[in-house]
Amino acid sequence: MVALLLSDESLDDQAQEMIYYGADRVITVTHDNLKNYTSEGYGQVLMSVIDEESPDGIVMGHTAIGKDLTPKIASRLDIGLISDATDIDVDGDQVVFTRPIYSGKAFEKKTIKEGITFATIRPNNIASLEKDESRTGDIQTKEIDVQDLRTIVKEVIRKQSEGVDMSEASVVIAGGRGVRSAEGFDQLYELADILGGAVGASRGACDAEYCDYSLQIGQTGKVITPDLYIAVGISGAIQHLAGMSNSKVIVAINKDPEANIFNVADYGIVGALFEVLPMLIEEIKQLQ
Ligand SMILES: Cc1cc2nc3c(=O)[nH]c(=O)nc-3n(C[C@H](O)[C@H](O)[C@H](O)COP(=O)(O)OP(=O)(O)OC[C@H]3O[C@@H](n4cnc5c(N)ncnc54)[C@H](O)[C@@H]3O)c2cc1C
Predict the structure, then answer these.
(1) Residues 111-136 as b or e (16 or more Cβ within 10 Å = b)
(2) Residue 217 Cα to ligand 1 middle (Å)
(3) I want to staple 215 with a disulfide (CB 3.0 to 4.6 A). Which of 50, 93, 201, 226 is the partner?
């Protein structure tokens, strides 16, 4: 397995890390024009590496970059692409990918029968191999002159966010319209703090300006797969489920026993959230 790393600065440490996690060989490409992602810049590198390596398969994360870049590469190479796979299996000599359809209501299995097997994988959905620091492998630096870009991203100004990044968090406490105000989210932040998790939200809560759209989970928000997802005052609309239904354990707190969120929840608490949350916070504190 060969890993490809791109940046404008040295990638030796990251390359070594990739080997510890299972790569046999790592190709690194550094160039000033790779400082910030552009589909043209990354595309030039990927096309050049594919041309030289003739891989049987390529996988990328189903991240903002993966989602933007892979269709362009597939179209250039005139090959198929399986996007947002949540599972990979091998059946004989075929690689079988599982991916959600209809906003996660059903799953389909797909293989690519001809040409390069090309897929994007939903982040955090497939467990990584154990880190093995005794593994060794080749790290190759490849010179590619990334030029003639029609777009150059000069600066990226990231929104300041406090605490744990929701996409990486193993625990996410998400609030919905039922939380009723921005202040209502304070208790969710308290619970997230105790559990070392992050806070997320439904679109209902974002539309109501209880929190920022960067916290939105769902079809038009972030897709996450934490170990524990606690939905607080969220009805469980299909567009919301599309972003969280693959979480390992789902807990729902809702005053309506008929709320759709209970259909995907492993544990449900029927009750008023401002009564349930303080009790939950207290109980968890006692256990720590
Ligand atoms: C094209 C499209 C894309 C969309 N994309 C997304 C998306 O990415 N993510 C997303 O989330 N939504 C998305 N939506 C919106 C989605 O359809 C729902 O409208 C939204 O998810 C509802 O948010 P909610 O569950 O917070 O609010 P509501 O549906 O209003 O639910 C609030 C819930 O809180 C409960 N509640 C109220 N008070 C309390 C209390 N005191 N204690 C306990 N429970 C209480 C209620 O019983 C209710 O179940 C999209 C819609 C469209 C059309």
Answers:
(1) ebeeebbbbbbbbbbeeeeeeeeeee
(2) 11
(3) 201
